[in-house]
Amino acid sequence: MEFSSKLIEKAVNEMSQLPGIGKRTALRLVLHLLKQPKEQTGFLSQALVAMREDIKYCNSCHNISDSVLCEICANQSRNHQIICIVEDIRDVMAIENTGQFRGIYHVLGGKISPIDGVGPSQLNITTLVDKVKSGSVNEIIFALSSTMEGDTTNFYIYKQIADCEIIMSTIARGISVGDELEYADEVTLGRSILQRVPFEKSFKNN
Predict the structure, then answer these.
(1) Rounded to a whole number, what is the largest CA-CA distance in the chain?
(2) Closest Cα to residue 156, out of 134, 124, 179, 131?
(3) Which residue from 77, 93, 85, 78 is spatially nearest to 61, judged by alpha carbons?
(4) Which long-range CB contacts under 8 A does 200-205 form with residues at least 24 apart?
(5) Are 138 and 82 in contact (CB under 8 A)?
(6) Distance between CA atoms of 153 and 120, rounded to whole angstroms?
(7) Among the four 19, 103, 121, 122, which has the fewest Cβ within 10 Å?
């Protein structure tokens, strides 16, 4: 792709680094921004810089936040004795959109995947185990994607807390095996939360 401006070329190259954005789409976006008032582009760049520099991660659940505690963990009307374990921030958003869950979350930051070089020590598992062993949790809901990596991560966490006297459940397999949680429709995901099953039964039947 030939460019008449090195500045446009650099902007397109940077934009095309984003997931799902090819060079042609990046060019279309850059040219759109070029047509906008300068202050509009300034608002966008300021928002991105502020997000990158000022974003925090909740000290309790590792969700993205503007402060040391995210809005969910700081909400006293939520049931803090029920923790839903998810892979990443997008899964929190997906479940929240169902309006069916009133507990709190724990964001692992990924799944155990030896092929990708991701082990338990690289995930937010230790803080979860500490919460459970502190005695402040009544139920853990495993809500990772129904993939081999998700099931491996679920089972690893289960073994870490198997001796604790808490309820362990997993979302119902209304979510198809191999599907990513963020792509599930809200009705299916909501029903999976409400119809969760004991975790032990989920892997004994597989």
Answers:
(1) 67
(2) 124
(3) 85
(4) 200/158, 200/168, 202/142, 202/154, 202/170, 202/173, 203/151, 203/154, 203/155, 203/158
(5) yes
(6) 8
(7) 19
Give pTM, 2 decimals: 0.75
CA gyration radius, the chain: 21
What is the spatial distance between Cα 22 and Cα 19, in angstroms, rounded to a whole number? 8
Q: What are the CA-CA distances from residue 80 to residues 75, 129, 132, 138 (Å)?
A: 9, 15, 12, 9
- Give the pLDDT confidence of 52-94 residue by residue, as tens digits: 999 999 999 999 999 999 999 999 999 999 999 999 999 999 9
User: Hey, what's the torsion of the CAs at 68, 73, 74, 76, to 10 degrees?
Assistant: -160
Angle between helices 89-98 and 186-194 (to 10 degrees): 90
Which pLDDT score, from 0 to 100, does residue 189 have? 72
What dihedral angle (degrees, nearest 10) is formed by the CA atoms of 66, 70, 75, 78? 150
pLDDT band at residue 3, thresholds of 50, 70 and 90? confident
Which tokens go with 7?
């500045």
**Amino acid letter for position 61:** C
